[in-house]
Amino acid sequence: MRTDISRKKIRNAFVEKVEELSGQNLLACYQCGKCSAGCPQADRMDLLPNQVIRLAQLGEQEDLFNCRTIWVCASCMTCNVRCPKGIKIAEVMEAIRQIMLRKRKDHILIEKLSAEERESVPPIALISSFRKSTS
Amino acid sequence: MKTIAYYPGCTLKNTAKNFEDSALCALDRLGYEAKELARWNCCGTVFSLATDDLMHHVAPIRNLVRAKEAGSDTILTLCAMCYNTLKRANERVKNDAESLEKINNFMDTETVKYAGDVRVLHLLEILRDELTFPVLAGKVVKKPNGLKVANYYGCLLVRPKSVGLDDQENPIVLEDLMTALGIESVEFPYKTECCGAYQTVDEPKAVADRTYRILSSARRQGADLVTVSCPLCAFNLDQRQKQAALLFADFEPLPVVYFTQLLALGLGCPEDRMRFDLHYVDPRPVLKKKGVL
Question: Which of A34, A135, B29, B254 is most buried by a 10 A CB count?
Fold first, then answer.
């Protein structure tokens, strides 16, 4: 995969927004991969957590807006505990989700859930799902 | 009797009635009256991780205002998600005067102004730190005969460190509780591995896959059942066994119980307070076999 890198792109508005919403310094990551090695949901992800951080560092917003990973992350915070640089990767995932959701690009369409899907799960599941996946 | 203000949360009045009923009976036997707040609202279930998202902290903080109104400086929680959300929102406003002021301004019809002065406690903290396990052990009237459990903590009871009640990856509070109840805990490498949480709504198969892996590990370790402390973990690990059985030919069902059910049985609470009718995999056969029922 070829990636064009420029100073302008690396410090673009998207990168600034991710850093602001997550409260994290993306450039602190030196790509050790410990977050991905321990992620219990990694097998369902198209981009591994360390790749999400790398692409965010480089300002590659389209790759991140179109990936599955940000919705597969359930904020279990195992990566946050293990990161040797103290980066809260789960917060970075949340920031990218929030940028999408604030443009009303919902991941779950409540009206498309069947009555069976809605009624077979407890309130705690529905509320947390809608909080994480809808605007 | 010692009285403590109690915040149940939505799911304990619904699919997790077995959690609430067993906990309240156990607390009663231990000399605690859990007094439910006269008014409460949903905590939001998940703490908002985005730095600027103050709006979603209003719901948890409003419940802490209710505790103040009830004249209490502590609030008891049972659900791991409520515990995490209430405590984390509380930590946020305690450490950030500007956020606290904005949230108070938003709730300008409340008669009590919140000052960050309510302590959010989980039942496990009361048992461990206030009552203490040696004292609890002295109150146990029914000890099982060779029951082995795998204790599943999930995520939100232990992470992040600022609100977790034990080690973030190798907690032992449930193991210590089980020892006090005369129950053996097996080594369980999946004890803090995510169950897939809310993805049970739109990705039930993926959650069934997590359930399969977590329960298979517990079975390999020789557990007769799995204990939980979160109603969402309970739903995923118990109810999603239905899907796990369809997806994996070698899957064998394993009962999942709340730690409070084993606590309540040990303290002599009647079987009808356990609400075993709410379980997908019936824990009664193994509990009878091991002499708990």
Answer: B254
